[in-house]
Amino acid sequence: MTASSAELPPEPQAVVGPLTRAAVFLVVRVNPGGESVARDLLADLPGLQRSVGFRSLDGGLTCVAGLSSSAWDRLYGSPRPAELHDLPVFAGDKHTSVTTKADLLFHLRAERMDLCFELESLIMARLEGVVTVVDEVQGFRYFDARDVLGFVDGTENPTGRGAVDAVLVDDDGAFNGGSYVIVQKYLHDMAAWNKLTTEQQELVIGRRKLSDVELSDDEKPGDSHIALNVIEDEDGNELEIVRDNMPFGRPAYGEFGTYFIGYAKTPSIIEKMLENMFVGSPPGNTDRILDFSTPLTGALFYVPTAEFLEDPVVASDEPAEPTPEPPAPAPGTSLGIGSLRRSPR
Ligand code: HEM
């Protein structure tokens, strides 16, 4: 470990940031043999982001990359983040979640879609031929940060220090400063939803539609979205996640969706919420939002620190392999300095 990395915690990726107006959610599988190309792209991601983002200083462009459990094994091997695993299916009598075979998630955010589009184009140019696209969704911020169901979405997100505490891993050695992220793409049955009165919709969500004020404990049904997603540990502390859901859709095709994305320091918090929603708490008391929302995808990823992506050997804290003595340069030749970045394992 270098002196500077001993003093400073590893730099996280831009997991916690202000909500933006535009986002792209790109999920791909790495084809067999494509591992080193994918790893090199991940190492160069901050540079690509600067190439696009620096040209629009108020554009707020960021890109977070995550790896699934199997992708981690293929790209970086051992050691691995303690809680990285495949997202389980949550199945109750009425609702069942979906899981998707996926390797890499790219979560691009900016104030303008053109910046996301440009960076995504550069990413895909580098990955051409070595990945299979699983899903690509362009999300937009809707009126008053509402979802397409018409409710303000994101209000109770922790902010500032609380957000950092909620999302960054702090008890896993070399993996501290990373995060876990779960994504799910939902489509809504707008015809059924619009048959409800506003008051009935408010009982589904657990908040007022116009004012975004939370219903009182007396008013809020136990199967409302809010009631099932406010969870606590055994000491009564609320367990929080950071969400940056985005609406998406194609009204001409009847497509109205919410792309759910939740970051947390441990995936177990988001998984508990999913269990509450799909299996029910108690079992059978499922989230009313699922009567109008169908998941099409689902996957879990670990988000390494920016430092790890750029230099996996250093960040992994693995004992360095003994380096053979370099051959002495022939008289009159250069010092033989090639790539300044160490090649990944
Ligand atoms: C809160 C919408 C899926 C976790 C909310 C709120 C809305 C909403 C409107 C209230 C405002 C706010 O605090 O943000 C949706 C929609 C979804 C969806 C449209 C997709 C169909 C999920 C999923 C999870 C989740 C899959 C977790 C696995 C939460 C949490 C809160 C919340 C933790 C805040 C609860 C609180 O502290 O009051 N959601 N959500 N949501 N949602 Fe969702």
From TrEMBL:
Q: Which residues form the Dyp-type peroxidase C-terminal domain?
A: 144-307
Pro residues: bias regions: 321-330
- Asked if the keyword Oxidoreductase belongs to this entry, the reply reads yes
Which keywords annotate this record?
Iron, Metal-binding, Oxidoreductase, Peroxidase
Q: What class of enzyme is it?
A: oxidoreductase
Q: Which cofactor does it need?
A: heme b
In what residue span(s) does the Dyp-type peroxidase N-terminal domain sit? 13-141
Its Gene Ontology molecular function terms? Answer: peroxidase activity
Q: Which SUPFAM superfamilies match?
A: Dimeric alpha+beta barrel (SSF54909)
What's one Pfam family here?
Dyp_perox_C
- Tell me its EC number(s), please: 1.11.1.-
Q: Where is this region: Disordered?
A: 312-345
InterPro entries for this protein: Dimeric_a/b-barrel, Dyp_perox_C, Dyp_perox_N, Dyp_peroxidase
Q: Which NCBIfam families match?
A: Dyp_perox_fam (TIGR01413)
The family note in this entry says: Belongs to the DyP-type peroxidase family.
Output this protein's name.
Dyp-type peroxidase
